[in-house]
Amino acid sequence: MAARYRSIAKKEVGTSMSAINVTPLVDVMLVMLIIFMVTAPMMQSGIGVNLPQAETRSTPADEGLTLTITSDRYIHLQDQVINQFLLEDKLKEYFVGQEKKVLFLKADQDLPYGFVITVIDIAKKAGVEVLGLVTEPADEKNRR
Q1: Does any domain span residue 63?
Q2: How far apart are CA 84 and CA 119, in angstroms?
Q3: Are residues 35 and 57 in the same domain?
Q4: How far apart are CA 77 and CA 99, in angstroms?
Q5: R_g (Cα) of the chain, nearest Å
Q6: Are residues 99 and 39 in the same domain?
Q7: How many CA atoms lie within 13 A of 56 on its CB side?
Q8: Contact 103, 124 (CB under 8 A)
């Protein structure tokens, strides 16, 4: 009888579990899924601007700097928010040593015309040679 107990004890110590416990893996994956679902809308690239529509298409080229003005009058130079009074200095700093100074302006269509002209004037004072206005293509139903 002692031999019987010895053989059972050896089997329990030497055997390994052959099934994989997937419960921790599923828990981790569900937590990661929730984290990605919550953070994905926050990682949206670009600045929300309601561009005016035009029949001709105008999109910024890769060679210039993009200046975006939102409907609440925030000025974004690339992805950085810039104060209106510091804009001229930042543009001069950016264009130092460049032969062609190209700026693309994305302005929300709900902005007052005077505010957009003020920003254009600041850009011209900073030495911008080429200023492109970015628009959105018009819908087919709005075309005549």
Answers
A1: yes
A2: 8
A3: no
A4: 20
A5: 30
A6: no
A7: 3
A8: no
pLDDT value for 33? 93
User: Does residue 100 sit within a domain?
Assistant: yes
63 shares a domain with 96: yes
CB count in 10 Å sphere of residue 136: 16
Residue 83, C-beta contacts closer than 8 angstroms, at least 6 positions apart: 75
The Cα–Cα gap between 94 and 65 comes to: 9
SS (H, E, C) the chain: CHHHHHHHHHHHHHCCCCCCCCHHHHHHHHHHHHHHHHHCHHHCCCCCCCCCEECCCCCCCCCCEEEEECCCCCEEECCEEECHHHHHHHHHHHCCCCCCCEEEEEECCCCCHHHHHHHHHHHHHCCCCEEEECCEECCHHHCC
112 inside domain? yes
Per-residue pLDDT of the chain (144 residues; tens, 9 = 90+): 555 555 555 555 556 667 778 888 899 999 999 998 888 877 656 667 767 777 776 666 667 788 999 989 999 988 889 899 999 999 999 888 888 888 999 999 889 999 999 999 999 999 888 888 888 887 754 544
CB 102 within 8 A of CB 64: yes
